[in-house]
């Protein structure tokens, strides 16, 4: 079995932002259940981190595709 390559920095950033997104959603749910309007801030943070996650995922895919095409050409 070949060794697993270390994750790229963009994959790591995508994973971190995904974790922040999940935690922000959990915090928003808890805030709204407790009757606090502070949950709106958590929803906004979840939206921002979700967009960052998609950005880093796409950036990693395009970088990997560029690496693959440059090696085969």
Give the key terms:
single chain; 73 residues; mainly alpha; elongated
Q: What can you see in these coordinates?
A:
The chain has 73 residues and is mostly helical. It is 81% helix and 0% strand. The chain is built from two helices and no strands. It has helices at residues 9-33, 39-72. Helix 1 runs antiparallel to helix 2 (39-72).
What is the secondary structure topology, with strand pairs?
Layout: H1 9-33, H2 39-72
Quick structural summary:
The chain has 73 residues and is mainly α.
Give me the oligomer status. Answer: single chain
Compute the number of strand runs: 0
Helix content: over 70%
Order of helices and strands: HH
Q: If you compute it from the alpha carbons, what radius of gyration comes out, rounded to the nearest whole angstrom? A: 17 Å
As a percent range, the share of strand residues is under 5%
Spatial shape: elongated
